[in-house]
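Typical record is below.
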Amino acid sequence: MFLFALSAVLMHAQGTGAPLQGSVSDAKGGMIAGAKVNVLNESTGRTATTSTDAQGHFSVSGLPVGSYTVEATAPGFGLVSRKTLHVAADHSDSAELTLQIGGTSADVTVEAAATGSIAAALAPMDALLEARSARTVITSAFINNFTSPVSDFGEAVEMAPGTFTTNGNGVGLGQSATYFRGFPDGNYDIDFDGIPFYDTNTPTHHSWAFFPAQFLGGIDFDRSPGTASTIGPTPFGGSIHLLSKDMSPIQNTRVQFSGGSYHTYLYDLEYDSGNLLPSHKLNFQIDVHHLQSDGYQTNNDQTRNAGAIKLVYKLGERTTLTGFSGVIWLDANTPNFNATRCQMYGASNANSTTTCIATGKVLLPYTGAGINFLNADNSDPINYLDKQYNYYHVPTDFEYVGVHSELGRGVTLDIKPYTYNYDNSEKYSNAAPITESKTVNFNGNPNSTTWFGIAVQPCNVQVKGKLPCGVDKYNSYRKYGETGALSQVSRFGILRAGLWYEWAATNRHQFPSDPLNNWADQPLSNFNEQFWTNSYQPYGEYEFHVLKKLSITAGTKFSYYTIHTKQFADNGKTIGGLGTNDPNTFITNSGSYSAWLPSIDANYRIKNIWSVYGQLSTGSVVPPSKVFDYTQSAAGIPVKTLPKQQRSTTYQGGTVLKLKHVTFDADAYHIRFQNSYSSTPDSSGEPQYFLQPSSITKGFEAESNVYIAHGLSVYLNASVGRATYVGVLPVACAPSKCTAAPITVQAPSGLWVQNTPSDVETIGVTYQHKSWDMGLFNKRVGTFYYDNGAYHNQATIDPFTLTNLFFNYTIRNNSRFDQTKIRLSFNNIFDQHNITSDNIVGSALTQTIAANGTTYTDPFNTKGQTPINGGDNLGVLPGRSVMVSVIFGFSIKH
């Protein structure tokens, strides 16, 4: 108080001006009481702080004549600022500030206020005028109001342009699969607060085991390789940038209870400390929650206990320290199969005269391979499935410490050392799905073909009348890394340079195991390996401000990756017995991959509310660890030639427009992708790698939010696209073994890349006014195809539609119960059960090509197609689910 009084005296001595007054409201027109307001003198840097009154107004007097920046924020809202407000002796500019509803990234908040676009302020997701690629920001308002309280990132992005997400066990109750522009998980990056995370054996993600909705404050979704400064193992397809929650300047406690379908319950406690210490240097937030659910699929239940803490401490006027830690303990009963067509519909097997379900009971929903373990003590085959033989235990942790320092002369330094761990211990039954009657030796009965009227199929191995067909699976890795970025702002533009480095140690195995004998593992594994990886990505780029309205950014990054493996002898499924069949015998391999990845883009601001952009960008992904998975000898002959990195080149352009009542953005893209690689053995048994057919993906995307009146808006997006294979590819063989030109295989030009819909559309209607937030969202996914290891589109997935409905009522009256909220969520309100995926069962027909004494297998299956049959493992839309939530907010009364 003394310092503030002294500051006021000094300012008065310099000559004070008229009081600076203003108001703070939300985008729906509701006045916000108790909002924190900071007034910064742009010349001296001195700051005065106040709060809005019960009517949302504020006034600061005693300010010296000059220019000021005014910032405002409130619990549940993002920061917004107004610059260059003049205070004169006889009058001052008025500061009317509008906060984004529910809170979101500062970029969206400031941009909506700067353009005066009500449609932008109310948009559930929106592009930015500064965009240089197809980029959609999913606001925290959308996550908090228009997704289920148990959702994960997949449900948060599924309404974005060109995107769809599937999760067979229900919203947030399993590892979801997200696709955009036809790229599956593993072909794009996900990061959290700028830190990439992914599985080490292949760049896929287990996001539900790391970052549930309770940890998320927003998502910056870039459907492009980004710029040179976009780091990560697979940014060529795009990047889903997950953001932690913004810090609240005001102390607040929220207690949440949610309950609904499938006996799903969520208990959550969140505490915001507000600004602490006399100088407001310290601020932290804590979230702890418990989730339990039976899941939509039969006996696919789960329990999750999690907690996260984020802390921000100002080391000085120009240096801020940020720390984050998230810990999750996840237990689930996750069988290794989806529901089969037989199990869903009781249909007749195309390859058998028997029916799938002899009892006539239709098991929908249903998971696993059916009755894998027959136990006479359990008399109900419908309820006794394989729960005790399938379980999934995953503890994870994720930590980082960030230092942000403004060094002067426009130079800023950001450093984030981090570590995270994934520890997946899984045991599951490994019998094939129920398809037909077979004789099994069970409990001494050599002629048992059915159990309680249900035809069963035995495990692959029979030992003394038992069925040791379980799998003991383990996948664990610990990573240490750091991201560093240095930027310098000048009148010419912005220079950015930085480095991402990461080291990881991985331990993986899969043993055949007998669940009826205390999960006793067989001596030889399916695979048992350890490996160590290093990732380096230095980069540099310059954002050149050519004109006041035109900026061009050009740069490059160098992607370098190394892997060192230690693989133990196995039962022949991966590398073989290494000549000894001794599980302690091992072989080592190593490899490295590198690529230069340049990019260039431009953004031109036609008007303050209208911009256009264009981009040329490249990307890559390192091959997965399985490049060493081939039969090897005890002598340890290494791979002679490692496969090349997959590469992509993306061209795209678009526009962003923000009118007062309408926002609109659109983009067109063309992507050439070296789709993947395959291998075939030469005469010595060594694998020879070659690229599979390249593909061309092209399409058009558009989205818009139209503000009608009184908080009512209509959100629309649509995309049309096509992804097809092209080209003729050589099948390489070792030079010493080739006596003629390498074999060429005609790629199936014109056939679709699987999981690429012909079109995707979203329509949403939202009402956001004062205390009410209501939304109806409908997602339609057009036709797409599935392949069976070949490229012939053997399965067709017909269009399907998902419709969600949400009601929210929030107390916003500056009382002690401020931010208390009631939520009602309906997912798949029309209870659709459409098929969303088809993992085709059965071996593809192959063509054998002989040349120079070497035999190759045609990877393109040019001889024929595998028929879809009743044993196919299908994914379906989970049925209707309803969740009711009550969130009690407790705030300090202002």
Summary: Residues 2-13 form the longest helix (12 residues).
